[in-house]
Protein backbone atom coordinates (compact mmCIF):
# COMPACT_ATOMS: atom_id res chain seq x y z
CA UNK A 1 0.00 0.00 0.00
CA UNK A 2 1.28 3.50 -0.80
CA UNK A 3 1.77 6.09 1.96
CA UNK A 4 -1.14 8.47 2.42
CA UNK A 5 -2.80 11.17 4.52
CA UNK A 6 -6.54 11.10 4.98
CA UNK A 7 -8.47 14.04 6.36
CA UNK A 8 -12.16 14.58 5.76
CA UNK A 9 -13.89 17.08 8.03
CA UNK A 10 -17.39 17.09 6.44
CA UNK A 11 -20.26 16.32 8.81
CA UNK A 12 -22.77 14.11 6.97
CA UNK A 13 -26.44 14.20 7.89
CA UNK A 14 -28.19 11.41 5.99
CA UNK A 15 -31.78 10.25 5.67
CA UNK A 16 -35.46 11.12 5.52
CA UNK A 17 -36.61 14.47 6.91
CA UNK A 18 -33.09 15.65 7.60
CA UNK A 19 -33.48 19.04 5.92
CA UNK A 20 -34.72 20.45 9.20
CA UNK A 21 -31.23 19.93 10.63
CA UNK A 22 -30.30 23.11 8.75
CA UNK A 23 -31.69 25.10 11.65
CA UNK A 24 -28.99 23.61 13.91
CA UNK A 25 -26.08 23.52 11.48
CA UNK A 26 -26.12 27.08 10.14
CA UNK A 27 -25.00 29.56 12.83
CA UNK A 28 -27.87 31.73 14.17
CA UNK A 29 -26.05 34.97 13.42
CA UNK A 30 -24.93 33.94 9.92
CA UNK A 31 -25.44 36.09 6.85
CA UNK A 32 -26.27 33.32 4.43
CA UNK A 33 -26.10 33.26 0.63
CA UNK A 34 -28.19 30.37 -0.75
CA UNK A 35 -26.86 29.28 -4.15
CA UNK A 36 -28.87 27.18 -6.57
CA UNK A 37 -29.18 26.17 -10.23
CA UNK A 38 -31.67 26.75 -13.00
CA UNK A 39 -34.77 26.49 -10.85
CA UNK A 40 -35.48 22.82 -10.00
CA UNK A 41 -35.21 23.61 -6.29
CA UNK A 42 -37.83 26.32 -6.71
CA UNK A 43 -40.14 24.13 -8.78
CA UNK A 44 -40.09 21.26 -6.34
CA UNK A 45 -40.34 23.29 -3.15
CA UNK A 46 -36.90 22.53 -1.69
CA UNK A 47 -35.87 26.18 -1.64
CA UNK A 48 -38.96 27.22 0.32
CA UNK A 49 -38.30 24.53 2.90
CA UNK A 50 -34.66 25.58 3.18
CA UNK A 51 -35.71 29.18 3.85
CA UNK A 52 -38.17 28.06 6.51
CA UNK A 53 -35.45 26.17 8.37
CA UNK A 54 -33.11 29.17 8.17
CA UNK A 55 -35.60 31.54 9.77
CA UNK A 56 -33.96 34.18 11.94
CA UNK A 57 -30.85 34.46 9.79
CA UNK A 58 -30.25 37.14 7.18
CA UNK A 59 -30.74 35.38 3.86
CA UNK A 60 -29.69 36.29 0.32
CA UNK A 61 -30.24 34.19 -2.83
CA UNK A 62 -28.23 33.52 -5.95
CA UNK A 63 -29.89 31.35 -8.61
CA UNK A 64 -28.94 30.50 -12.17
CA UNK A 65 -25.78 28.44 -11.72
CA UNK A 66 -25.74 26.40 -14.90
CA UNK A 67 -24.81 22.72 -15.37
CA UNK A 68 -21.01 22.82 -15.85
CA UNK A 69 -20.84 26.08 -13.87
CA UNK A 70 -19.44 29.13 -15.60
CA UNK A 71 -16.82 31.47 -14.17
CA UNK A 72 -18.64 34.64 -15.29
CA UNK A 73 -21.85 33.57 -13.55
CA UNK A 74 -20.03 32.69 -10.34
CA UNK A 75 -18.22 36.04 -10.29
CA UNK A 76 -21.64 37.71 -9.90
CA UNK A 77 -22.13 35.70 -6.71
CA UNK A 78 -18.67 36.78 -5.53
CA UNK A 79 -19.84 40.42 -5.94
CA UNK A 80 -22.90 39.77 -3.74
CA UNK A 81 -20.73 38.12 -1.09
CA UNK A 82 -18.53 41.23 -0.95
CA UNK A 83 -21.35 43.77 -1.07
CA UNK A 84 -23.49 42.10 1.56
CA UNK A 85 -20.61 40.81 3.73
CA UNK A 86 -21.92 37.24 3.48
CA UNK A 87 -20.24 34.84 5.90
CA UNK A 88 -21.92 31.50 5.09
CA UNK A 89 -22.61 29.83 1.72
CA UNK A 90 -25.35 27.24 1.34
CA UNK A 91 -25.38 25.21 -1.90
CA UNK A 92 -28.73 23.62 -2.74
CA UNK A 93 -28.44 21.42 -5.82
CA UNK A 94 -26.23 18.96 -7.68
CA UNK A 95 -22.52 18.88 -8.43
CA UNK A 96 -22.59 22.06 -10.51
CA UNK A 97 -24.10 24.13 -7.71
CA UNK A 98 -21.81 22.60 -5.08
CA UNK A 99 -18.72 23.09 -7.25
CA UNK A 100 -19.78 26.64 -8.12
CA UNK A 101 -20.25 27.40 -4.43
CA UNK A 102 -16.77 26.13 -3.66
CA UNK A 103 -15.37 28.48 -6.29
CA UNK A 104 -17.32 31.39 -4.81
CA UNK A 105 -15.94 30.46 -1.38
CA UNK A 106 -12.37 30.40 -2.65
CA UNK A 107 -12.64 33.48 -4.91
CA UNK A 108 -14.36 35.65 -2.29
CA UNK A 109 -11.43 35.31 0.08
CA UNK A 110 -8.69 35.57 -2.56
CA UNK A 111 -7.26 39.07 -2.63
CA UNK A 112 -5.96 39.08 -6.20
CA UNK A 113 -7.97 41.17 -8.68
CA UNK A 114 -8.11 38.49 -11.37
CA UNK A 115 -9.79 35.44 -9.87
CA UNK A 116 -8.98 33.37 -12.97
CA UNK A 117 -5.42 33.23 -11.60
CA UNK A 118 -6.76 30.75 -9.05
CA UNK A 119 -6.94 28.04 -11.71
CA UNK A 120 -3.16 28.07 -12.04
CA UNK A 121 -2.82 26.72 -8.49
CA UNK A 122 -4.74 23.47 -9.00
CA UNK A 123 -4.78 23.17 -5.21
CA UNK A 124 -5.20 26.64 -3.72
CA UNK A 125 -3.35 26.93 -0.38
CA UNK A 126 -5.37 28.16 2.62
CA UNK A 127 -3.12 31.23 3.03
CA UNK A 128 -3.97 32.31 -0.54
CA UNK A 129 -7.72 31.84 -0.06
CA UNK A 130 -8.94 30.95 3.45
CA UNK A 131 -12.48 30.20 2.10
CA UNK A 132 -15.93 31.00 3.49
CA UNK A 133 -17.70 28.10 5.23
CA UNK A 134 -19.98 26.04 2.96
CA UNK A 135 -22.98 23.82 3.74
CA UNK A 136 -24.69 21.71 1.07
CA UNK A 137 -28.14 20.24 0.49
CA UNK A 138 -27.69 17.56 -2.17
CA UNK A 139 -30.40 17.10 -4.82
CA UNK A 140 -28.44 14.94 -7.27
CA UNK A 141 -26.24 11.99 -6.23
CA UNK A 142 -23.26 11.80 -8.59
CA UNK A 143 -20.17 13.88 -8.07
CA UNK A 144 -19.29 13.35 -4.40
CA UNK A 145 -18.71 17.12 -4.25
CA UNK A 146 -20.67 17.13 -0.95
CA UNK A 147 -17.76 15.43 0.82
CA UNK A 148 -14.65 16.49 -1.06
CA UNK A 149 -12.62 19.65 -1.57
CA UNK A 150 -12.71 19.94 -5.35
CA UNK A 151 -14.81 21.57 -8.03
CA UNK A 152 -14.79 21.81 -11.81
CA UNK A 153 -15.38 25.25 -13.35
CA UNK A 154 -15.61 26.38 -16.97
CA UNK A 155 -13.94 29.64 -17.99
CA UNK A 156 -12.20 30.98 -21.08
CA UNK A 157 -9.27 28.81 -20.01
CA UNK A 158 -11.33 25.60 -20.34
CA UNK A 159 -13.12 23.24 -17.95
CA UNK A 160 -10.66 23.05 -15.11
CA UNK A 161 -10.55 21.45 -11.67
CA UNK A 162 -9.79 23.53 -8.61
CA UNK A 163 -9.07 22.20 -5.10
CA UNK A 164 -8.49 23.78 -1.72
CA UNK A 165 -7.81 22.17 1.65
CA UNK A 166 -10.42 24.60 3.07
CA UNK A 167 -13.18 23.90 0.53
CA UNK A 168 -14.64 20.79 2.18
CA UNK A 169 -18.25 21.54 3.11
CA UNK A 170 -18.69 21.96 6.87
CA UNK A 171 -21.82 19.83 6.61
CA UNK A 172 -23.84 18.13 3.89
CA UNK A 173 -27.47 17.09 4.12
CA UNK A 174 -28.28 13.99 2.08
CA UNK A 175 -32.00 13.28 2.05
CA UNK A 176 -32.56 10.69 -0.74
CA UNK A 177 -36.20 11.84 -1.02
CA UNK A 178 -35.02 15.22 -2.33
CA UNK A 179 -33.68 13.38 -5.40
CA UNK A 180 -36.99 11.71 -6.38
CA UNK A 181 -37.81 14.52 -8.81
CA UNK A 182 -34.71 13.92 -10.97
CA UNK A 183 -35.28 13.09 -14.64
CA UNK A 184 -34.27 9.49 -15.49
CA UNK A 185 -31.27 10.59 -17.50
CA UNK A 186 -29.80 12.50 -14.54
CA UNK A 187 -30.18 9.45 -12.28
CA UNK A 188 -28.41 7.36 -14.94
CA UNK A 189 -25.69 10.03 -15.09
CA UNK A 190 -25.28 9.78 -11.32
CA UNK A 191 -24.86 6.01 -11.44
CA UNK A 192 -22.28 6.18 -14.24
CA UNK A 193 -20.33 9.07 -12.67
CA UNK A 194 -20.12 7.16 -9.37
CA UNK A 195 -19.07 3.97 -11.23
CA UNK A 196 -16.28 5.79 -13.06
CA UNK A 197 -15.04 7.61 -9.93
CA UNK A 198 -14.66 4.18 -8.40
CA UNK A 199 -12.80 2.55 -11.28
CA UNK A 200 -10.48 5.55 -11.75
CA UNK A 201 -9.15 4.64 -8.29
CA UNK A 202 -9.43 0.85 -8.59
CA UNK A 203 -8.67 -0.39 -12.12
CA UNK A 204 -5.07 0.84 -12.01
CA UNK A 205 -2.05 -1.08 -10.70
CA UNK A 206 -2.12 -3.65 -7.88
CA UNK A 207 -0.95 -2.10 -4.59
CA UNK A 208 -2.02 -4.61 -1.93
CA UNK A 209 -4.68 -2.18 -0.71
CA UNK A 210 -7.19 -4.87 0.11
CA UNK A 211 -9.68 -2.75 2.05
CA UNK A 212 -9.74 -0.06 -0.66
CA UNK A 213 -10.14 -2.70 -3.39
CA UNK A 214 -12.95 -4.51 -1.62
CA UNK A 215 -14.73 -1.25 -0.80
CA UNK A 216 -14.46 -0.21 -4.45
CA UNK A 217 -15.85 -3.59 -5.52
CA UNK A 218 -18.68 -3.16 -3.00
CA UNK A 219 -19.62 0.20 -4.50
CA UNK A 220 -19.55 -1.21 -8.05
CA UNK A 221 -21.66 -4.24 -7.12
CA UNK A 222 -24.15 -2.04 -5.29
CA UNK A 223 -24.51 0.21 -8.35
CA UNK A 224 -25.07 -2.83 -10.58
CA UNK A 225 -27.68 -4.17 -8.14
CA UNK A 226 -29.68 -1.00 -7.65
CA UNK A 227 -29.01 0.97 -10.85
CA UNK A 228 -31.95 -0.12 -12.95
CA UNK A 229 -34.26 -0.30 -9.93
CA UNK A 230 -33.65 3.27 -8.86
CA UNK A 231 -34.26 4.54 -12.40
CA UNK A 232 -37.45 2.52 -12.88
CA UNK A 233 -38.78 3.08 -9.32
CA UNK A 234 -37.51 6.50 -8.30
CA UNK A 235 -39.40 6.46 -5.00
CA UNK A 236 -37.95 3.11 -3.85
CA UNK A 237 -36.26 4.68 -0.81
CA UNK A 238 -33.68 1.98 -0.14
CA UNK A 239 -32.50 1.74 -3.73
CA UNK A 240 -32.10 5.53 -3.94
CA UNK A 241 -30.47 5.75 -0.50
CA UNK A 242 -27.85 3.23 -1.61
CA UNK A 243 -27.10 5.28 -4.73
CA UNK A 244 -26.78 8.48 -2.70
CA UNK A 245 -24.33 6.95 -0.22
CA UNK A 246 -22.28 5.20 -2.94
CA UNK A 247 -21.92 8.52 -4.79
CA UNK A 248 -20.58 10.21 -1.66
CA UNK A 249 -18.23 7.38 -0.69
CA UNK A 250 -16.79 6.95 -4.19
CA UNK A 251 -15.10 10.34 -4.12
CA UNK A 252 -14.44 11.39 -0.55
CA UNK A 253 -10.86 10.15 -0.40
CA UNK A 254 -11.57 6.79 1.27
CA UNK A 255 -11.08 4.37 -1.63
CA UNK A 256 -8.37 6.54 -3.17
CA UNK A 257 -6.11 6.47 -0.09
CA UNK A 258 -2.91 4.49 -0.60
CA UNK A 259 -3.63 3.45 -4.19
CA UNK A 260 -2.46 4.66 -7.63
CA UNK A 261 -5.14 6.75 -9.34
CA UNK A 262 -5.84 7.12 -13.05
CA UNK A 263 -8.25 10.01 -13.99
CA UNK A 264 -7.65 9.67 -17.76
CA UNK A 265 -11.38 9.20 -18.33
CA UNK A 266 -12.21 12.44 -16.49
CA UNK A 267 -9.43 14.47 -18.08
CA UNK A 268 -10.48 13.60 -21.64
CA UNK A 269 -14.17 13.72 -20.68
CA UNK A 270 -13.90 17.32 -19.43
CA UNK A 271 -12.57 18.40 -22.84
CA UNK A 272 -15.51 16.71 -24.58
CA UNK A 273 -17.99 18.49 -22.29
CA UNK A 274 -16.24 21.83 -22.80
CA UNK A 275 -16.29 21.45 -26.60
CA UNK A 276 -19.66 19.77 -27.18
CA UNK A 277 -21.72 20.34 -24.02
CA UNK A 278 -22.28 16.60 -23.51
CA UNK A 279 -23.22 15.72 -19.90
CA UNK A 280 -20.18 14.88 -17.76
CA UNK A 281 -21.22 11.27 -17.03
CA UNK A 282 -22.04 10.55 -20.67
CA UNK A 283 -18.50 11.49 -21.73
CA UNK A 284 -17.18 8.98 -19.18
CA UNK A 285 -19.44 6.17 -20.48
CA UNK A 286 -18.14 6.85 -24.00
CA UNK A 287 -14.47 6.74 -23.00
CA UNK A 288 -14.12 4.02 -20.36
CA UNK A 289 -14.60 0.91 -22.56
CA UNK A 290 -12.12 2.24 -25.11
CA UNK A 291 -9.56 3.20 -22.44
CA UNK A 292 -9.61 -0.32 -21.03
CA UNK A 293 -9.36 -1.79 -24.50
CA UNK A 294 -6.34 0.34 -25.41
CA UNK A 295 -4.60 -0.09 -22.03
CA UNK A 296 -5.45 -3.73 -21.39
CA UNK A 297 -1.79 -4.72 -20.96
CA UNK A 298 -0.86 -2.03 -18.43
CA UNK A 299 -4.05 -2.68 -16.45
CA UNK A 300 -4.16 -6.43 -16.95
CA UNK A 301 -3.95 -7.53 -13.31
CA UNK A 302 -6.67 -5.15 -12.07
CA UNK A 303 -8.90 -5.73 -15.11
CA UNK A 304 -8.81 -9.48 -14.38
CA UNK A 305 -9.58 -8.81 -10.69
CA UNK A 306 -12.46 -6.53 -11.73
CA UNK A 307 -13.76 -9.16 -14.18
CA UNK A 308 -13.73 -11.86 -11.53
CA UNK A 309 -14.88 -10.03 -8.41
CA UNK A 310 -17.39 -7.63 -9.94
CA UNK A 311 -18.79 -9.67 -12.87
CA UNK A 312 -17.93 -13.25 -11.83
CA UNK A 313 -15.84 -13.84 -14.98
CA UNK A 314 -13.04 -16.25 -14.05
CA UNK A 315 -12.68 -18.68 -16.94
CA UNK A 316 -11.10 -18.44 -20.37
CA UNK A 317 -8.10 -16.77 -21.93
CA UNK A 318 -6.87 -13.51 -20.43
CA UNK A 319 -7.96 -11.39 -23.40
CA UNK A 320 -11.37 -13.07 -23.53
CA UNK A 321 -11.98 -12.30 -19.85
CA UNK A 322 -10.98 -8.68 -20.36
CA UNK A 323 -13.18 -8.41 -23.47
CA UNK A 324 -16.11 -9.80 -21.50
CA UNK A 325 -15.58 -7.40 -18.59
CA UNK A 326 -15.47 -4.44 -21.00
CA UNK A 327 -18.62 -5.66 -22.73
CA UNK A 328 -20.50 -6.18 -19.45
CA UNK A 329 -19.54 -2.65 -18.40
CA UNK A 330 -20.70 -1.14 -21.69
CA UNK A 331 -23.94 -3.16 -21.56
CA UNK A 332 -24.55 -1.93 -18.01
CA UNK A 333 -24.25 1.74 -19.05
CA UNK A 334 -26.45 1.14 -22.10
CA UNK A 335 -29.05 -0.64 -19.93
CA UNK A 336 -29.37 2.62 -18.00
CA UNK A 337 -30.16 4.46 -21.24
CA UNK A 338 -26.70 5.96 -21.78
CA UNK A 339 -25.19 5.70 -25.28
CA UNK A 340 -21.49 4.78 -25.27
CA UNK A 341 -20.07 5.90 -28.63
CA UNK A 342 -18.91 9.35 -29.75
CA UNK A 343 -20.90 8.92 -32.96
CA UNK A 344 -24.12 8.51 -30.93
CA UNK A 345 -23.66 12.18 -29.93
CA UNK A 346 -22.88 13.42 -33.45
CA UNK A 347 -19.12 13.71 -32.97
CA UNK A 348 -17.18 12.93 -36.14
CA UNK A 349 -13.57 11.93 -36.85
CA UNK A 350 -12.77 15.64 -37.25
CA UNK A 351 -13.98 16.27 -33.71
CA UNK A 352 -11.21 14.00 -32.44
CA UNK A 353 -8.61 16.50 -33.68
CA UNK A 354 -10.29 19.27 -31.67
CA UNK A 355 -10.36 17.16 -28.52
CA UNK A 356 -6.67 16.22 -28.87
CA UNK A 357 -5.77 19.89 -29.50
CA UNK A 358 -7.62 20.89 -26.32
CA UNK A 359 -5.76 18.22 -24.32
CA UNK A 360 -2.49 19.61 -25.64
CA UNK A 361 -3.44 23.22 -24.75
CA UNK A 362 -4.21 22.14 -21.19
CA UNK A 363 -1.01 20.15 -20.76
CA UNK A 364 -2.87 16.82 -20.56
CA UNK A 365 -0.06 14.99 -22.29
CA UNK A 366 0.94 12.41 -19.67
CA UNK A 367 -2.29 11.06 -18.23
CA UNK A 368 -3.07 7.94 -16.17
CA UNK A 369 -1.59 6.12 -13.16
CA UNK A 370 1.65 5.69 -15.12
CA UNK A 371 1.74 8.96 -17.07
CA UNK A 372 1.94 7.04 -20.33
CA UNK A 373 -1.30 8.25 -21.90
CA UNK A 374 0.30 10.70 -24.33
CA UNK A 375 -1.64 12.66 -26.94
CA UNK A 376 -1.06 9.76 -29.30
CA UNK A 377 -2.63 7.29 -26.88
CA UNK A 378 -5.54 9.69 -26.22
CA UNK A 379 -6.15 9.83 -29.97
CA UNK A 380 -6.22 6.03 -30.13
CA UNK A 381 -8.68 5.97 -27.23
CA UNK A 382 -10.93 8.50 -28.99
CA UNK A 383 -10.75 6.62 -32.28
CA UNK A 384 -11.73 3.45 -30.41
CA UNK A 385 -14.69 5.31 -28.89
CA UNK A 386 -16.26 6.20 -32.26
O1 LIG B 1 -30.15 23.58 -12.47
P1 LIG B 1 -31.38 22.92 -11.95
O2 LIG B 1 -32.63 23.55 -12.40
O3 LIG B 1 -31.32 22.71 -10.47
O4 LIG B 1 -31.44 21.44 -12.64
C1 LIG B 1 -30.39 20.49 -12.51
C2 LIG B 1 -29.52 20.40 -13.76
O5 LIG B 1 -30.23 20.76 -14.91
C3 LIG B 1 -31.02 19.14 -12.40
N1 LIG B 1 -31.39 18.74 -11.03
C4 LIG B 1 -30.57 18.70 -9.94
N2 LIG B 1 -31.25 18.21 -8.89
C5 LIG B 1 -32.51 17.96 -9.31
C6 LIG B 1 -32.61 18.31 -10.67
N3 LIG B 1 -33.75 18.17 -11.38
C7 LIG B 1 -34.82 17.67 -10.74
N4 LIG B 1 -34.80 17.30 -9.44
C8 LIG B 1 -33.68 17.41 -8.69
N5 LIG B 1 -33.66 16.98 -7.42
O6 LIG B 1 -30.01 18.25 -12.88
C9 LIG B 1 -29.24 18.90 -13.89
C10 LIG B 1 -27.78 18.56 -13.74
O7 LIG B 1 -27.25 19.10 -12.54
P2 LIG B 1 -25.67 19.15 -12.29
O8 LIG B 1 -25.46 19.71 -10.94
O9 LIG B 1 -24.99 19.80 -13.43
O10 LIG B 1 -25.26 17.60 -12.34
P3 LIG B 1 -24.15 16.78 -11.57
O11 LIG B 1 -24.47 16.62 -10.14
O12 LIG B 1 -23.97 15.55 -12.38
O13 LIG B 1 -22.84 17.70 -11.65
C11 LIG B 1 -22.05 17.76 -12.80
C12 LIG B 1 -20.89 18.71 -12.59
O14 LIG B 1 -20.02 18.26 -11.54
C13 LIG B 1 -18.68 18.16 -12.04
C14 LIG B 1 -18.88 17.87 -13.50
O15 LIG B 1 -17.73 18.12 -14.26
C15 LIG B 1 -20.03 18.80 -13.84
O16 LIG B 1 -19.56 20.12 -14.03
N6 LIG B 1 -17.91 17.18 -11.26
C16 LIG B 1 -17.54 17.50 -10.00
C17 LIG B 1 -16.76 16.67 -9.21
C18 LIG B 1 -16.34 17.03 -7.84
N7 LIG B 1 -16.64 18.22 -7.36
O17 LIG B 1 -15.70 16.25 -7.16
C19 LIG B 1 -16.28 15.39 -9.72
C20 LIG B 1 -17.00 14.91 -10.93
O18 LIG B 1 -16.17 14.00 -11.59
C21 LIG B 1 -17.40 15.98 -11.88
O19 LIG B 1 -16.33 16.35 -12.74
ZN1 LIG C 1 -17.08 12.47 -12.48
From TrEMBL:
Residue ranges occupied by any Alcohol dehydrogenase iron-type/glycerol dehydrogenase GldA domain in the UniProt entry: 9-176
Domain spans labelled Fe-containing alcohol dehydrogenase-like C-terminal: 188-358
Entry-linked Pfam families: ADH_Fe_C, Fe-ADH
GO cellular component: cytosol
UniProt xrefs under PROSITE patterns: ADH_IRON_1, ADH_IRON_2
Keyword Protein biosynthesis: no
UniProt-listed SUPFAM superfamilies: Dehydroquinate synthase-like (SSF56796)
Domain of life: Bacteria
CDD domains for this protein: BDH
GO terms of molecular function: alcohol dehydrogenase (NADP+) activity; butanol dehydrogenase (NAD+) activity; metal ion binding; methylglyoxal reductase (NADPH) (acetol producing) activity
Keyword tags: Oxidoreductase
Designated name of the protein: Iron-containing alcohol dehydrogenase
Amino acid sequence: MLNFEFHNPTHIIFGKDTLKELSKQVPQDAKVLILYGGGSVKRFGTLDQVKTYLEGRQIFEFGGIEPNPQYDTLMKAVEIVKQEKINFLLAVGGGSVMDGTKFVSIASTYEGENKEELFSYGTVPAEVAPCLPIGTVVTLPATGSEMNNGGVITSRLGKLAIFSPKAFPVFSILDPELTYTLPETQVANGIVDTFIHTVEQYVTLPSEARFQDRTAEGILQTLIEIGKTTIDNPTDYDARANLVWCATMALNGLIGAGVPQDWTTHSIGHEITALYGIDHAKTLAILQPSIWNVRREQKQAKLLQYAERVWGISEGEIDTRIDQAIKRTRDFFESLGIATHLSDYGITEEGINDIVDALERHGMTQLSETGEVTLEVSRKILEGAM
